[in-house]
Structures are given as structure tokens and as C-alpha cells.
Write a structure and sequence with these properties.
Helix 1 runs parallel beside helix 2. It is built from eleven helices and 13 strands. It has 332 residues and is an alpha/beta fold. Helix content is 42%, strand content 15%. The strands form five sheets. It has a four-stranded parallel sheet, with helices on both faces. It has a single domain, classed as Rossmann fold (3-Layer(aba) Sandwich). The structure holds nicotinamide-adenine-dinucleotide (NAD) and uridine-diphosphate-N-acetylglucosamine. The site of uridine-diphosphate-N-acetylglucosamine (UD1) has 21 residues, from helix 6, helix 7 and strand 7.
């Protein structure tokens, strides 16, 4: 597993351990900390094998895959901040595209042809109607999104070139929440870019108020609507996708979402209920690049993997809050 110490990867570790599926983590700690391993050990009952290293180091990947007799790869590693990708596009293309190419080449060298790739709903064109089905038009509006789109296209080409590949590009909508133990969760460095971590930091008193980016969208309350999905549901989706890939060749792209949209203010009020605290906010201008509405059609994940999100928004907020309260500064 690449990027296994990150937010989604660490939850996937727990989901794999729950099914007694062994795994090895490769992570360069660019956006995570070693403390995650201690937490995982506490959760799963053993210290997961970890290799500190970069996905751009092909020899290290080959050596790791051979030494551990790897049969499949979950590829989470990458950079994910949209604003940063606009300021530093080359860094994003190098880490997300070149890094992925190095990984795929290492997989070819070792004969490993089963792969799950972390894609994103951000690759859907902004002109689509809701809900977004997997066959909707694609088109990214920033370098981060383009890296995801390019890698998906590379993977489709790869699967055409060699029918032995089994690949799933999982298009996450908005993963939020944390493991219910409060031991692992999202630990953004600096100011959070995403809504729920920001709300959590306001609720815990680290920040004064939430800036609501736009109150004049064509939505019920004027604020942006998104498909928030519990990170453990997302993690379990990977385990179910892996099971599917063991029986099916080719390359599929599949949405992971709940199929329901929630506005910024809906989410804020849910979080107030979960935390028992009032959360100050101020409506400000729109954030460049944001869309008014975005939610998934979720039938394909159900039809192919037998997966559907099971956790409600109430649990997303409760679990996020438990994590935030127990770890006010994240893993720091
Ligand atoms: P994260 O930053 O928490 O985790 C990514 C992990 O990859 C980190 O531990 C980081 O240290 C590691 N990493 C980065 N570059 C690396 C490299 N070159 N070599 C080795 N390790 C490297 O992010 P996340 O939220 O867990 O997201 C995981 C994946 O899912 C990313 O590819 C992201 O783009 C994608 N995704 C995330 C979201 C979301 O909302 N979190 C939505 C859609 C897609
Ligand atoms: C963002 C990224 C997307 C990425 C996803 C997960 C952009 C344009 N899109 O999606 O590429 O895949 O994160 O990492 O950055 N909001 C506020 N105040 C805040 C933060 C957010 O009002 O402080 C609003 C946003 O305007 C949006 C909603 O909350 O309406 C959700 O925002 P966010 O959590 O950043 O997710 P996305 O914008 O969906």
C-alpha cells in the first residue's frame, strides 16, 4: 500500500486487518507521521510492516514487492491540495503522475497486475447534471485534478495493452470522519483546506470561525452541496474492490459516495449537534474553482463490489469530533 500512513490509507489498513489481509505500507512521510504506526498497532493488535520510502524510487518498490511477495497494490500516495497544485504544478505532475508511472513500471517488473488507484470526483466536468455517473463527461479544472485524470487514462491504456491487469480507479467524493476509536483520523498540516477539518478546529477552539465560501449558489440555502462519505466506508470499499479485482480483469472507474448531497450549513449544524458546541461562521466570497453541487450516482459500486456506504452524516460528525477532541493538534 502506498501512502498508507495518510488519512484514507490508514483507515484502509484497519479495514484490511479486519479481514486478516496482510499488507505492507510504503510512505515517505511527506504528509503523515510515524505516530500513525503506533496508533495502527493499538487498533489492529500488531505493528504493520512499514517501509519509509518514495514511490518515485522504483528499485525500492521492486525490492519491497519481491521481499513481501506482494500480490496487489493500493495506491494512495500523492499530493492533494488544489491551491498548492495551481502554485506548484510541476511538483504535482512529478509526484502524482511520474510517481504513479514509476510505481506501475515496478509492478510490471515484478509481475503484480492488480491495482486500486485513489481517484477523485474532481475529474468530472463541471457541466454535468447530478448525480454524477461514471460515464459522465470528464474534465479537470486544476493541476491536481488533471494528475488524477491523466493517471486514470494511463491505467486504461495499460489495461488495453495487457489483459492480465485488474485495475479499479475509485473516485472518492468527500471522505470525512475518523475511526470510531478516536485513534486515527485526519491531521492536516497548517490551515485545513477542507470543510470538515476546518469545522472541527473551530469547534475545538483552534480557530475562531468558519468562512463559508459563497452563500449565493443555486442550492437550497445558497451554500455549496457535496457528497460526504465516511472514511471507513471508503476504506471498506477498497477491500471489496480488491475482492472484485481478484475475479475480474480490465480497468473500471467507480464512484465511492453516498449519493446524497449536504450543504455547508447542513454540515455545520450536524457538527454542532455532534459536538454540543456552537460553531461561528461568516459567509464570504466563493472559492475559485468550486462548483455549486456535486454528488454521486452510487449504483455501480453496489453492482460490481456489493459496496454501499452504511454510515450516516451523524456518525461522520460524531467520529470526526471524537478524534478532534482526543487529538486537538492531530498527530503533532
Ligand atoms: P494524505 O495526504 O493524508 O495521504 C497521502 C499519503 O501519501 C501521505 O501519508 C503522504 O506522506 C504519502 N505520500 C505522498 N507522496 C508520496 C510519495 N512520493 N511517496 C510515498 N508516499 C507519499 O491524503 P489522503 O486524504 O489520505 O488521500 C489519499 C489519496 O486519495 C490521495 O491520492 C488523494 O489525492 C486521493 N483523494 C483524497 C480525497 C480526500 O478528500 N482526502 C478525495 C479524493 C481523492
Ligand atoms: C476539494 C477539492 C477537490 C478534492 C477534495 C478532497 C477544490 C476546488 N476541490 O473538494 O479537488 O478532491 O477537496 O480533498 O478545492 N468550504 C467552506 N469553507 C471552508 C472549506 C470549504 O465553505 O473553509 C466549502 C466549499 O466551498 C465546498 C464545501 O465546503 O462547498 C466542501 O469543500 P471541501 O471540503 O474543500 O471539498 P470540495 O470542494 O468538494
Amino acid at each position: 500500500m502506498t501512502g498508507g500512513l495518510g488519512y484514507i490509507g490508514s483507515h484502509a489498513c484497519v479495514a484490511l486487518a479486519q479481514k486478516a489481509i496482510p499488507f505492507v505500507i510504503v510512505d515517505n512521510l511527506a504528509n503523515s507521521s510515524l505516530g500513525v504506526i503506533d496508533r495502527l498497532a493499538e487498533l489492529v493488535g500488531y505493528r504493520p510492516p512499514f517501509v519509509e520510502g518514495d514511490i518515485r524510487d522504483g528499485d525500492l518498490l521492486v525490492e519491497t514487492m519481491e521481499r513481501h511477495a506482494i500480490g496487489a497494490v493500493m495506491h494512495f500516495a500523492g499530493s492533494k491540495a488544489v491551491g498548492e497544485s495551481v502554485a506548484m504544478p510541476l511538483d504535482y505532475y512529478v509526484n502524482n503522475v511520474a510517481g504513479s508511472l514509476t510505481l506501475f513500471a515496478a509492478m510490471v517488473r515484478t509481475g503484480v497486475k492488480t491495482l486500486i488507484f485513489s481517484s477523485s470526483a474532481t475529474i468530472y466536468a463541471q457541466t454535468n447534471a447530478m448525480p454524477l455517473a461514471e460515464h459522465a463527461a470528464l474534465g479537470a479544472s486544476n493541476p491536481y485534478g488533471r494528475t488524477k485524470l491523466f493517471v486514470e487514462q494511463i491505467l486504461f491504456d495499460l489495461s488495453v495493452s495487457d489483459p492480465a491487469w485488474s485495475i479499479a480507479c475509485l473516485r472518492y467524493f468527500n471522505p470525512v470522519g475518523a475511526h470510531p476509536s478516536g485513534l486515527i483520523g485526519e491531521s492536516p498540516r497548517g490551515t485545513p483546506n477542507n470543510l470538515v477539518p476546518y469545522i472541527a478546529q473551530v469547534a475545538v477552539g483552534r480557530r475562531e470561525y468558519l468562512s463559508v465560501f459563497g452563500g449565493d449558489y443555486e442550492t437550497e440555502d445558497g451554500t455549496g452541496v457535496r457528497d460526504y462519505v465516511h472514511v471507513l466506508d471508503v476504506a471498506e470499499g477498497h477491500v471489496m474492490a480488491l475482492d472484485y479485482l481478484r475475479r475480474h480483469a480490465g480497468c473500471v472507474a467507480v464512484n465511492l459516495g453516498t449519493g446524497r448531497g449536504m450543504s455547508v450549513l447542513d454540515m455545520l449544524h450536524e457538527y454542532e449537534r455532534a459536538s454540543g458546541r456552537s460553531i461561528a461562521y461568516e459567509v464570504t466570497g466563493r472559492r475559485p474553482g468550486d462548483v455549486a453541487r456535486c454528488w454521486a450516482q452510487v449504483s455501480l459500486a453496489r453492482d460490481l463490489f456489493g459496496w454501499q456506504a452504511t454510515r450516516e452524516v451523524e456518525q461522520m460528525c460524531q467520529d470526526s469530533w471524537r478524534w478532534q477532541l482526543a487529538n486537538p493538534d492531530g498527530y503533532a
